[in-house]
Design goal:
Elements (H helix, E strand, L loop, with lengths): L8 E5 L2 E5 L1 H7 L1 E6 L23 H14 L6 E3 L9 E4 L4 H13 L3 E4 L4 E7 L3 E6 L5 E6 L1 H5 L2 H15 L10 E4 L12 H11 L4 E2 L3 E2 L1 H11 L7 E3 L14 H4 L6 E7 L2
Parallel strand pairs: 4-7, 5-6, 10-13
Antiparallel strand pairs: 1-2, 2-3, 3-14, 6-9, 7-14, 8-9, 8-10, 11-12
Length: about 280
């Protein structure tokens, strides 16, 4: 089966709003998306759909927000897997839906990881963001990967590693594991015009990923770096779509660590598939 070319559309359900690809869902049953911050139970400064449990928010509100999200996107009843994100490049794989296996992966994720690749139904992967780059990659087989790419993760090639993890899962299931057939989605994140960095860091990105990473000398385009990493993994250019939304410029819809001065909630990138 060939996936339709990726697109992102805004969808609202049960008071929540998120970006998703309806054609992808129709083709392979994977519901993926990038959440916005409205429709949750959290109070300021985490208002309102904060999905992060590590930012100082009331944990009951966070749990309620996660429940609302799963129900709103049609993934209620699936096992939710999250990770203690450490700005690294570790991608954990799930190829077995048994409770024992999922508990083992959950423990590994809690110890630190920045990517989850899943090939079984009944599991939703969710990672949290507030300026870093959310990446979702989906195979026609129904397998998917969700990755968190801050500047450290992007420089460590975590988008490529997420594709490689997905390819390995496909190969284990007897598929051809061809990344040029995968769809890749880059979610809302801090864009180059708002992301001023040390010029030496920008130069390192330019050397590794190309001149498109530099904007106005000392501004870094993580979008360009993530795109280059995906291309390097074999994803076709026409199968990479970016939301093109800057979190620092759109704080009414998304959380931004920089724009908030470091105190804010976390929006999410998710993917899941029911039986």
């Amino acid at each position: 089966m060939k996936l339709p070319l990726p697109t992102l559309q805004a969808r609202s359900c049960a008071g929540l709003s998120f970006l998703t690809d309806e054609a992808l869902f129709g083709a392979c049953g994977v519901r993926m998306g990038f959440t916005r911050r409205g429709g949750g139970a959290s109070l300021p400064p985490y208002d309102s759909l904060n999905l992060g449990s590590h930012v100082g928010d009331d944990l009951e509100a966070v749990r309620e927000n996660r429940r609302r999200l799963l129900d709103a996107v049609g993934l209620g009843g699936t096992r939710l897997l999250m990770a203690n994100q450490v700005h690294g490049s570790s991608v954990l794989s799930v190829d077995d839906g048994s409770d024992e296996k999922l508990d083992r992966v959950a423990a590994q994720a809690d110890a630190g990881a920045d990517g989850l690749a899943v090939s079984v139904p009944g599991v939703t992967a969710l990672l949290c963001f507030a300026d870093c780059v959310p990446v979702v990659v989906v195979s026609a087989s129904g397998a998917f990967a969700v990755a968190h790419a801050g500047w450290r993760g992007a420089f460590a090639d975590i988008p490529r590693k997420a594709v490689e993890a997905l390819r390995a899962l496909d190969a284990d299931r007897g598929g051809d594991g061809s990344p040029f057939r995968y769809n890749a989605y880059i979610g809302p994140h801090i864009m180059a015009e708002c992301y001023q960095c040390d010029s030496d860091l920008v130069s390192q990105f330019v050397e590794r990923f190309g001149p498109e990473c530099a904007w106005d000398g000392d501004h870094l385009s993580l979008d360009a770096a993530v795109r280059a990493s995906l291309l390097g993994a074999g994803v076709a250019a026409e199968r990479i779509v970016s939301a093109g939304v800057c979190t620092a410029c759109s704080t009414e819809d998304y959380y931004s660590y920089r724009a908030s001065g470091g105190v804010c909630g976390r929006h999410g990138a998710f993917a899941g598939r029911k039986e």
